[in-house]
Amino acid sequence: MKRKGSIWGLVFVLLLAILSGCGGKKPAGSGSESGEPAGGDAKKEPVELSFWYGWTGTEAAALEKLIQKWNDIRPDIRVKGLSQSDYQKQLTAITGGNPPDIASNFGQDVVPWGERGAMMPLDDYIKKDNVDLGDFVPAALSSSQSDGKTYALPIAMHVSMLFYNKELLEKAGLNGPPETMGQLKEYIAKLSVKENGGKLQRLGLWPGVDAFTFSYAYGGSYYDAENKQVTPDNAGVKAAVEFGKGIWDQFGSKELDRFASGLGQYMSPQNPFFTGKYAMTIDGEWLPTFIKQYAPNLQYGIAPIPYDENNPSLKHPGNVTTSVFYIPKGVKHPDESWKFLKWLTEPEQMAEFTAAIGNLPTRTSLQQHEIYKDVPGFQEFLQYSSSPNLHSFPATSFSAEYMTEFTTQYNAILRGEVGVDEGLKRVKDKIQPLVK
């Protein structure tokens, strides 16, 4: 699942409506075993659940296959899936009192949504059905928890690495991928090609790529929990912003916009990395599966994210995110929703789904499962996922607003609409009042 920024455009009054008028039922009974329908209700009409998920294309097809598997073994609880990647619509449906019965989201949204009453706590169900939370990767599970409450269960874990076109590097006389940020800057210059009067034909790396990942490459931190201070002006964060700005200015907004207008769609054979428009890219563990499908002849390599050469202890940095399933507050059939959610995140279904779409599972018991042996890139990402220098954006009630504002000001900085210091100050001035 590709990450998309969450937008909190709804007023607090609507969120209060969830707390006051849309409370879900308390757990009435434990979920049955994976394939057993509840007894004694054969003549009753089946409960119908709506399931909104953010995956599209072949990834959505993999999830629909699981939905069909469930419907085949559980005729008493019928699930209808809908590919819906607009998460603002999820929030609108929840606050409007007409939520889907189960939905997917991203880990960075769980705490803000959960604490504001949009997600139903799952702890009573987890305890009653003896779900082993100890089998989940701690960093993945923690993104779904706050103040002792679990608001979602993670189905997949995402880590970014550096992909590079072996043939293009070889033609440029480069022996292997860059290891440090200084080398990365040199590679971008050597691999970028201008022709036809200075027009870009190829980029070494898109300069506006993922400032969060590069912040960790410089040892950055976004929040000082002890002093309850947001820190977008942290030295490591600032260094990452300055790195992106320096690369951007080598080409300029006008030329980059012209170049970008001719790039192909991400999930297609025209992906700019697949066609050689990008010599390198920062992407997640799902990309090798897309390459196998859309560009099987591409000669590529996977390498760690470069690190600050002045601090070797920062090797193998990166940003960890998760995809989760949750039950919205106010659903009509919370018990049935839980049964389906629990089933989806059990090892068998998690393995089937994550292997099909090339994602990392969040259960430690699956990490050596044979189902992943033929998943391209899986071993590289699995090994990388154990790096101590991987970090998640801090899970707070204001993280959605924080990430949105940071991204907004980062783009403004790149385009020269505001200076680096002023842009980061704007982030701090806007987000610090939200800290409670």
Brief characterization of the structure:
InterPro entries: Bact_solute-bd_prot1 (IPR050490), SBP (IPR006059). This protein is of the alpha+beta class and 436 residues long. The chain is 39% helix and 15% strand.
What do these coordinates show?
With about 425 residues, the chain is of the alpha+beta class. It has 2 domains: about 190 residues, D-Maltodextrin-Binding Protein, domain 2 (3-Layer(aba) Sandwich); about 180 residues, D-Maltodextrin-Binding Protein, domain 2 (3-Layer(aba) Sandwich). It is about 40% helix and about 15% strand. Strands 1, 2, 3, 6, 14, 15 and 16 form a 7-stranded mixed β-sheet that branches. It has a 3-stranded antiparallel β-sheet with strand order 12-7-13. A two-stranded antiparallel sheet has the order 4-5. Helix 9 packs across helix 10 and helix 16 packs antiparallel against helix 17. The two termini are about 30 Å apart. The N terminus is likely disordered. Pfam families: SBP_bac_1 (PF01547). InterPro entries: Bact_solute-bd_prot1, SBP. This is Sugar ABC transporter substrate-binding protein.
Helix and strand arrangement:
Blueprint: H1 12-21, E1 47-53, H2 57-73, E2 77-83, H3 87-95, E3 102-106, H4 107-115, H5 123-128, H6 138-142, E4 145-146, E5 149-150, E6 153-159, E7 161-165, H7 166-171, H8 181-191, E8 193-195, E9 199-202, H9 211-217, E10 223-224, E11 229-230, H10 235-251, H11 253-261, E12 280-283, H12 287-294, E13 300-303, E14 318-326, H13 334-344, H14 347-357, E15 360-361, H15 378-384, E16 390-391, H16 399-414, H17 420-431
Parallel strand pairs: 1-2, 1-3, 14-16
Antiparallel strand pairs: 3-14, 4-5, 6-14, 6-15, 7-12, 7-13, 8-9, 10-11
Helix pairs in contact: 2-14, 9-10, 16-17
